[in-house]
């Protein structure tokens, strides 16, 4: 597996740690979940800003040590990422249709926000898993 693929899969997997922690707080396992709009968006904003900062720092370090070619995908990796993105997009669409079904039952705004976050996480999980399947199938 190339350095680029390890970088992409590692960062995507690492993003799940704070999101899983968030859902553990939502279900009452690891502390208190945010109860206000401001608390929710502060938490999610910090997760995504941290992810972007970690991505930028890590890719800069890899590019400085090994050159830009190690950060950029080759044709095969581009093919794998494109198809994995497509699969993640399909998963998001299916989950959004399912969310529309549940939207007709009374839901609290925080439930909708957490459902949308779960949909994003499911899409990313499908993307990672299908990318690994494509990567393994093409070796």
Quick overview:
By secondary structure, the chain is mostly helical.
What does this structure look like?
By secondary structure, the chain is mainly alpha-helical. The protein has one domain (3-138). It has helices at residues 3-26, 37-66, 75-102, 109-138. Helix 1 packs antiparallel against helix 4 (109-138) and helix 3 (75-102) packs antiparallel against helix 4 (109-138).
Instruction: Give the helix tally.
Output: 4
Q: Number of folding domains?
A: 1
* CA-based shape: globular
In total, the number of strands is: 0
Major sheet summary line: none
Query: From N to C, what is the helix and strand string?
Result: HHHH
Helix content, binned percent = over 70%
Give the overall pLDDT as a whole number. 85
Helix-strand layout with pairing:
Blueprint: H1 3-26, H2 37-66, H3 75-102, H4 109-138
Helix pairs in contact: 1-2, 1-4, 3-4
Features:
single chain, 139 residues, mainly alpha
């Amino acid at each position: 597996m190339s350095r680029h693929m390890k970088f992409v899969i590692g960062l995507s997997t690492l993003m799940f740690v704070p999101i899983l922690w968030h859902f553990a707080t939502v279900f009452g396992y690891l502390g208190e979940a945010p109860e206000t709009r401001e608390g929710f968006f502060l938490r999610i904003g910090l997760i995504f800003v941290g992810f972007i900062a970690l991505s930028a720092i890590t890719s800069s370090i890899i590019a400085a040590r090994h050159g830009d070619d190690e950060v950029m995908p080759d044709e095969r990796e581009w093919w794998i990422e494109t198809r994995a993105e497509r699969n993640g997009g399909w998963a998001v669409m299916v989950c959004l249709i399912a969310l529309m079904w549940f939207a007709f039952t009374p839901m609290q705004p925080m439930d909708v926000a957490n459902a949308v976050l779960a949909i994003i996480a499911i899409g990313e999980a499908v993307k990672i898993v299908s990318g690994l399947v494509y990567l393994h199938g093409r070796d």
